[in-house]
Design a protein that fits this description.
Blueprint lengths: L1 H10 L2 H9 L3 H16 L1 E4 L4 E2 L3 H4 L6 E5 L6 E8 L4 H15 L8 H12 L10 E7 L19 E4 L5 E4 L19
Parallel strand pairs: 3-5
Antiparallel strand pairs: 1-4, 2-7, 3-4, 5-6, 6-7
Helix pairs in contact: 1-2, 1-3, 3-5, 5-6
Length: about 190
């Protein structure tokens, strides 16, 4: 937590770092720490509940400065997969967007991180560093690619794929056994 707060203070400012420290919801704290880390060091971030089908590195263009995934409704951007070049201004704008939410000057209702990232991206659409951004897509496997059925997962979100901009599958957006894709065999049998 202390390292994240220091990183956020460098990437944004002390006020944003204070909001990070005061936030009690873990996923929003993670969003802020992830953004600051990507701003400072660059790289790729993956949640641990995604199941890979292909190397993401092989699908990235060498000139891409930013990569993420549009959700299946194409309204928001994933937080579970995100990549950025170091010092990409979009990531700072994202942190300042989080700060604006906490200040009350631009309140976001619903899932905070995914909405603020999309707002920050839209604010940088004319930025030449984003000319080669890669926006991959989450798609419903049962309606598009028809890869093997994942019968052992019982929730609808088990059957969503992430595809690259060439429509080639890269990973399942949720691994069987994760909170939004529970394993059929986890069901407890009453005794």
């Amino acid at each position: 937590d202390q390292q994240c707060a220091r990183l956020i203070a460098v990437a944004a400012d002390e006020e944003t770092a204070r909001y990070f420290k005061e936030e009690t919801e873990g996923m929003y704290r993670s969003d802020m720490c992830r953004a600051a880390g990507l701003w400072r060091y660059g790289g790729l971030y993956f949640d641990n509940d995604m199941q890979t089908l292909a190397s993401s590195w092989d699908r990235l263009r060498p000139t891409a400065q930013f990569v993420t995934v549009r959700d299946f409704e194409r309204r928001y951007f994933f937080q579970s997969f995100l990549g950025s070049a170091p010092k990409l201004e979009l990531m700072r704008t994202y942190l300042f967007g989080m700060r604006a939410h906490y200040r009350g000057t631009h309140v976001v209702h619903g899932l905070l991180g995914v909405q603020v990232l999309r707002i920050a991206y839209d604010a940088h659409l004319r930025d030449p560093t984003l000319a080669d951004a890669q926006l991959w897509s989450e798609v419903d496997n049962s309606k598009t690619h028809h890869l093997r059925e994942r019968l052992w997962g019982w929730e609808k979100l088990c059957d969503y794929l992430v595809v690259d901009d060439g429509d080639r599958p890269i990973f399942w957006s949720r691994m069987v056994g994760s909170p939004k894709c529970r394993d059929l065999f986890e069901t407890k049998i009453p005794r």
